[in-house]
Amino acid sequence: MSSSEYGSHTWELLLTVDHQLEGVDKEFLLPVTGDLHIGGLMLKLVEKIPVSQDWSDYAFWWEQKKCWLLKTHWTLDKCGVQADAKLLFTPQHKMLRLRLPSMKTVRLKVSFSAMVFRAVSDVCKMLNIRRPEELSLLKQSGDTLKKKKKKDKNNKEQVTEDILNLCNSPVSSGLPANSGLYSKTMAPIYDPLSGSPASSTITWFSDSSLTDQNCSVLALSHPNCSPEMLAEMYQPRTLADKAKLNAGWLDSSRSLMEQGVLEDDQLLLRFKYYTFFDLNPKYDAVRINQIYEQARWAILLEEIDCTEEEMLIFAAIQAQYHVSKLSLSSETQDSTCESEVDEVEAALSNLEVTLEGGSTSNILEDITDIPKLADNLRLVRPRKLSLKAIKSYWFIFRDTSISYFKNEESAQGEPIEKLNLKGCEVVPDVNVAAKKFGIKLLIPVADGMNEAYLRCDNEDQYARWMAACVLASKGRTMADSSYQPEVQKILSFLQMKNMSSQATSDPESVDMKPECFISPRYTKKYKSKQLTARILEAHQNISQMSLVEAKLRFIQAWQSLPEFGLSYYIVRFKGSKKDDVLGVSYNRLIRIDMATGDPITTWRFSNMKQWNVNWEIRQVAIEFDQNVSIAFMCLSADCKIIHEYIGGYIFLSTRSKDQNETLDEDLFHKLTGGQE
C-alpha cells in the first residue's frame, strides 16, 4: 500500500467471512475510514471475495459487543467500530431445532438477527399456528437436563431422534410467507374429525414444505408414551422446582444471537401466555393440538397439581382421543370435499345468527327483565384458628353483585352484606362424589383479598350461580349472551366428573396401558387393572367424542384447574428476610409461602396503576390502587422475564375479534422491552 493510499484517517479492519467455500480465505484485512458506512463495508468485502454468490442474507456480527450491525446507512464511527473490532460476516438465517409441545422436533431456518418476537411469528406462519404472540422460545436450564443426561449415560444404545426437516420452506429461506395461510377468505379448512387439512386446501401449502403429511404430523397426537419415557423427563416436586421451568424464557426484544443461541441448537417452542384467543377448529388444527399436548405433558409430569378424580378425567379424554384416532386409521377415509361449506356463506350465516340473537320474544325479555338469581345458599366465612362459620342465608344475585339476607321474607329490606364481584377471582370447589358444590370468591380489597365460600345444594344450582359469578368477575351480567353457554359448559364438566353411577366395563377385555395416561404418582398408588377400570368408568361419558372435541374438552378441563396458567418464580420482597414464590397469571400476581405453598396475597392487574424496573439493582416495583405498592427482586430468573410477563399479558388483553390478525409489534415492545 502506497503512502498516499495509507492516509492519516485510514486504518485496517479485520473481517471474517462465515462460508464453506473451499480454497477461499475466511479472513480479510481491509483499509477503512471512520466515515465509511456499513453498506459500503459490505460492498468492499464482497468485491475482495473471489467467488460470486448471493450475499443478500449476510450481515455483520460484532463479537465483542454481541450485537448485529443491521443499519447499513450508519458509519463505522457512529456504530463505534474501531480497529480492534472483530466483525463476522455471517448469514442472518441459520438452522435451529425446535421442540414443540407435542415433543416433536422440527429443524428449520430461523432469523438469528431479528427480535425473538418476530422470529417466533415467522416460525408460527411456517407451522400454520395462528396467534403467535401467545408463544415464545424457552431454553432448558441445566437443572432440568441433569436427570435426562444421567439416564443417557446408563443407556448405551441411543435411539435416533425423529426430526421433521422443514428447512426448504419460504419462511426458512428468509422470504415472505404465503399470505394465503392467513387470508380471511382463503384460510385452510380442516377435517373436524381427523384435524388434518381437507384435500382442496392442500394447495395453499404448495409453496411450503408444510405439506399435508407434515401438517397431519403436527395436528395429530401420539399419546402412547411409556413409563420409562416419563421417568427420564424432569418432574418438578416442589414450587422451587416449578420455578426452574420458567427461568429460561428468551428475551422477546433481543435476537437469538444476542442471547447466546448457536446454529443448530435446540430450543423449546411453548405457549408462554395462557390466554388462548379465538380457538377455531376450522383453522387451528395444529394450534389446538399443540395446546392439548402442552396441557397433557403438564398433567403427566405433574407440573400442575390436580386431584385423583381430575386425573382420571384427563386420562379418560386421552383414552377417547386414542380410541377415536385408531378407529379413524382403521377405516378408509375418503378425502372428498362434499361437506365443505363455502366460507363466504358460512360468514353470512354466522352474521345472520349474530344479528338475530335468538327469537324475538327472548330479545324483548332480555330488554325488559333484569336477570337475577335468588336461592337459599350456605355461606362459609374462614375464621382464625382454622374454624369456619357455616350458615344458610337468602342470596340474591343481580347485575354483578351478590346480596344476602337472613331469610326470604327480609329480602325487601337492607342486606346483611353486599359483595361486588367485579374484578374478583372465582375458584371452583367441587367434589362430585361427595356431593360438594362450592364456589370460592376472592374479592379484592385494599390490602389483598377477602375470602368467601358459597355452598350450593346440587349441580344445577351450582352451574347457574357459578356461571353468574364468572361473568360478574369480568364485569358482565346474566343478560350477556354467554351466560347460558357458560351454564351448559359447567354442567357438562360436572357430568364428566360424575363417575359413580356409570357402569364399569370388563378391564381384562380392553387393551389399555393406563401408565400412558396417568402421572407416575398415581400409577405407583394403584395396580394397572384398577386404573384401567376407573378410566373406563369416566370414559363412558365421553365415548362419542371426535378427535377435536376430545382435545378441546381436555383443554377446557385443564383451564378449570385452580393452578392453571400460573408461572412460578422465586423472589425476595422488599423488607422481607425470607424468599417467597411469586405466581404470575393472566390477570393477577400471587405471593405464595415457599414452605407451605399457601397463597399470602393476591394483586390483580386490573388494579395496577404502573410498574417499572430498576435495572441497576434488578428490582421490579409495582403500584396498585388505594396506595398499595410492592417491590421485589427475582432470584430464580432475570427480572426482565417477569417484567415481560406482566407487559405481555396486558398487551394480549387488548386483542379483539374485530381486529385483523396483524399485531401492533411496537406496542408489545413498549410494554415488555424495558429501558436497560
TrEMBL record:
Places the protein is found: Cell junction; Cell projection
Main location: other
GO molecular function: integrin binding
Signal peptide coordinates: none
CDD domains xref list: FERM_B-lobe, FERM_C_fermitin, PH_fermitin
Coiled-coil portions: none
One GO process term, biological-process aspect: cell-matrix adhesion
Residue stretches making up the PH domain: 378-474
Keyword Nucleus: no
Pfam families documented for this protein: FERM_M, Kindlin_2_N
Record key words, sorted: Cell adhesion, Cell junction, Cell projection
GO cellular component: cell projection; focal adhesion
Protein family (similarity comment): Belongs to the kindlin family.
Protein name according to UniProt: FERM1 protein
Lineage: Eukaryota, Metazoa, Chordata, Craniata, Vertebrata
